[in-house]
Amino acid sequence: MDEILELLEKDARLTAEEIAGLLKLDVKTVRSRIKKFEKDGVIVGYKAVINKELVRSAEKGVRALIEVKVMPQKDQGFDHIAERIFRFPEVASCSLLSGTYDLLLVVEGRDLHTISNFVAEKLSPMENVRGTVTHFLLKKYKEDGVILRRREANKRIAISY
């Protein structure tokens, strides 16, 4: 992968000037390459990695991974059904998989019932959906290469006999 992309993937806050300094490149060159990456769809957005356990919101307090088995549509494959599914506001991400299930969704909702209602009322009744398996996320340790919580010092008192 391109060195500029690697740096931005690790820290999207880096400026073109900082990247140019790190890579010993001209700032103008770095800016034009970043603009080209954006124009070509290589860079599709910039984001911060948030530890959502520390910032629970009322409307998105629970997350689940949902495996979905689908029947691909003739002449459209998986793309058409995947697009119908990822358009739901509850779906935070959607990926095509190999293996037993075809799609992996990350779904966010207010509580367990909100997510189970999404599966029962919106996802499962879809014409091409053949089955689902829902896994509720209990705790996340690492996301996109970033460790979310630092190990706290052991606060237990040592007891010896």
Task: Write structural notes for this entry.
This protein is an alpha+beta fold and 161 residues long. The protein folds into two domains: 3-39; 62-139, Alpha-Beta Plaits (2-Layer Sandwich). Helices cover 30% and strands 21% of the residues. The chain has five helices and six strands. The strands form two sheets. A four-stranded antiparallel β-sheet has the order 2-3-1-4. Strands 5-6 form a two-stranded antiparallel ribbon. Strand 5 (142-143) and strand 6 (146-147) form a beta hairpin. Helix 2 crosses helix 3. The protein is flat, with a radius of gyration of 21 Å. The chain starts with a helix and ends in a 14-residue tail after the last strand. The relative contact order is 0.14. The model has no long low-confidence stretch (mean pLDDT 90).
* Count of folded domains: 2
CATH fold label of the largest domain = Alpha-Beta Plaits
Shape: flat
Tell me, what is the CATH class of the largest domain? Alpha Beta
The portion of residues assigned to helices is 25-40%
The end-to-end span amounts to 57 Å
How many whole angstroms does the radius of gyration measure? 21 Å
Order of helices and strands: HHHEHEEHEEE
Note the main sheet: 4 strands, antiparallel
Structural class: alpha+beta
In short:
The chain has helices spanning 3-10, 16-23, 27-39, 79-86, 112-123, and strands spanning 62-70, 91-96, 103-109, 129-136, 142-143, 146-147. It has 161 residues and is an alpha+beta fold. The chain has 2 domains: 3-39; 62-139, Lrp/AsnC effector binding domain/regulation of amino acid metabolism (RAM) domain (Alpha-Beta Plaits), CATH 3.30.70.
